[in-house]
Design a protein that fits this description.
230 residues, mainly alpha, 9 helices, 84% helix, flat
């Protein structure tokens, strides 16, 4: 299989340039968010400081993520241009598997922060930072689910490289496992909500995070096992 032709090469150059500009924009936005969060948060105490701390933390995440993307997409890197179609397919599918290993653990890491924020909201003491913190594991759960289902931008723009019969089979098994977790968790939350409504509400992010993590990790695990078998 030959490397990219001229048309594909120009298309990929434009796509990489757009992604690089997006990564640079994320760094700028992250610097602003982190700077504002740290500057104002250091002058506040209690819940107000927590809210600004969350803003700063999100800003730092944008900086780190943007810096990684800038390094991957740096203009001097030209190895990608000599990729054959099978090599590109393997690289994109391996990148998807890595994301599905990492993001579920990021989701779980945000659960403790979400739980504390939810307690403040239920007590009527919530601010913007608490609402953002409460939503983070849910957002990441949806991100993992979208990657597993092939709804993310990379999967849609590289469908001919990332969609094959094996992917369909792995996706079906991963989503099936996630559905069982979701149903079991929703049933438990229903029972908790009847007993103690506030506990039921606080448990919802755990259920969604668990279902999303199950989908991602199950897909990545199956991809690894089938890869061993060739």
């Amino acid at each position: 299989m030959t490397a990219m032709d001229d048309r594909e090469l120009r298309k990929e150059v434009r796509a990489r340039r757009r992604k690089l500009h997006g990564a640079q924009l994320a760094i700028v936005l992250g610097v602003l968010m982190a700077g504002i969060g740290f500057a104002i948060g250091m002058q506040r105490t209690g819940d107000a400081a927590t809210g600004w701390g969350v803003l700063a933390g999100v800003g730092v995440g944008l900086i780190v993520g943007g810096a990684i993307m800038c390094w991957v997409l740096r203009p001097g890197e030209t190895g990608w241009s000599a990729e054959t179609q099978p090599t590109r397919r393997d690289r994109l599918q391996a990148q998807r598997a890595r994301q599905l290993w990492i993001f579920p653990f990021v989701t779980i890491a945000f659960l403790a922060q979400s739980t504390m924020a939810t307690q403040h909201i239920l007590a009527g003491e919530g601010n913007l930072g608490h609402y953002v913190s409460a939503a983070l594991p849910v957002i990441y759960a949806w991100l993992v689910a979208s990657i597993t289902l092939g709804w993310d931008h990379q999967s849609r723009s590289n469908r001919r490289f990332m969609e094959d019969e094996l992917t369909v089979v792995l996706r079906a098994r991963a989503i099936g496992a996630a559905f069982v977790v979701l149903m079991a968790g929703a049933t438990a939350v229903f029972g908790l909500g009847l007993w103690r409504p506030e506990i039921g509400i606080a448990a919802v992010p755990f259920v969604l995070a668990g279902a999303g993590a199950t989908a991602g990790i199950r897909f990545a695990w199956l991809d690894r096992e089938f890869g061993k078998d060739g």
